[in-house]
Amino acid sequence: MIDETLEFKAFEVSEIAGDDAPAFSGRLVQRSVRELPKGDVLVRVSWSSLNYKDALSANGNRGVTRTYPHTPGIDASGIVACSEDSAFQPGDHVLVTGYDLGMNTSGGFSQYIRIPSHWLVRLPEAMSLRHSMVLGTAGLTAALCVEKLLNNGLRPEQGDVLVTGATGGVGSIAVALLSQLGFCVTACTGKPQQAAYLSLLGARAIVSRAELVDSSTRPLLKERWAAAVDVAGGDLLWNILRSLQYGGSVAACGLAGSPALQASVFPFILRHVNLLGVDSVTTNHEHRCSLWQKLASEWRITQLESISKTINFSQLDYELKVMLEGGAVGRRVLDVNA
Ligand SMILES: NC(=O)c1ccc[n+]([C@@H]2O[C@H](COP(=O)([O-])OP(=O)(O)OC[C@H]3O[C@@H](n4cnc5c(N)ncnc54)[C@H](OP(=O)(O)O)[C@@H]3O)[C@@H](O)[C@H]2O)c1
Fold first, then answer.
1. Domain spanning 138-277: CATH 3.40.50.720
2. Which residue owns the Cα nearest ligand 1 atom 11?
3. Ligand 1, from 231, 291, 324: best to mutate by most atoms within 8 Å of Cβ?
4. Domain residue ranges of the chain, discontinuous segments joined by +
5. Looking at the predicted structure, is the pLDDT value of residue 1 above 80?
6. pTM, to two decimals
């Protein structure tokens, strides 16, 4: 039985009255277990991580979080403290990504979370709690993108694979994973100064975003990419569609550039290309467990340490702002007990 009066630390974002528009500000607060939402498992959090959606939530984006004060954090890993579901016992090592965590359910930027048991994934044996959060939602999403491209028939001999937002979380892991699987990866970035980082992850070539955007209205461009992982959306996605090789595919998972997509059907009906949607939030449980196992074994990424930096609560505000401005490089893992 858990003591509902147990107190712990959490990062809480509140709305503060601004002169014009409302402003949002985060601070460390003391909370008690009884203030957490209902759920059948209480988890003592060890690690969380930063994702673009957390930056939106911390900035008052109502499409992500409807009411404040709120604790963001769409990812968490830790140890079961108490469970009403016999499938989990106190002491079990678990992780959770997506569902409603950190959106309208108090999230992982906290020393405790209480959630429905079906959101939990048992930590693979060969993976540490920290390792799981270096991957987090970004890692699961990158793996889903790569898996979808492979299921669609992609093979290394078909040619170059493009990854956009390559220095960000999803992008960094997609570059590393595809390179490890033997693909020739071109990294598209807005940060040419990070060329050494991208080469370390395995990128064979680097292109700027501007280089990929052709402002003409031509329905098709030169066939360039066998496939792509796109986190940007908008113009960049349209230009990728126009530049795919005959029969090529793009796995689209993000909107870092824009949620809009102005396109024509020509690449689909003349080049036989595929636009593959990817969602990691509600991926079914069996599928997500199998991908986590894969990320712990044959898809284990060797350069994880180069991708990640550990931060504590006092650095959260700053890191979330950097992320919102498109400045993120690699993954930030939050040690909630530091
Ligand atoms: N579908 C899903 O389930 C799912 C899951 C996770 C994330 N996402 C989405 O995927 C995107 C990336 O997430 P993340 O967590 O990897 O974020 P992140 O770590 O903040 O990385 C985003 C990266 O996108 C690039 N970027 C920034 N502004 C851009 C612009 N205007 N045009 C093109 N690229 C831009 C930047 O990389 P460069 O400077 O290297 O270009 C930036 O580092 C977000 O839109 C997020 O919402 C979707």
1. yes
2. 254
3. 231
4. 7-123+305-335, 138-277
5. no
6. 0.97
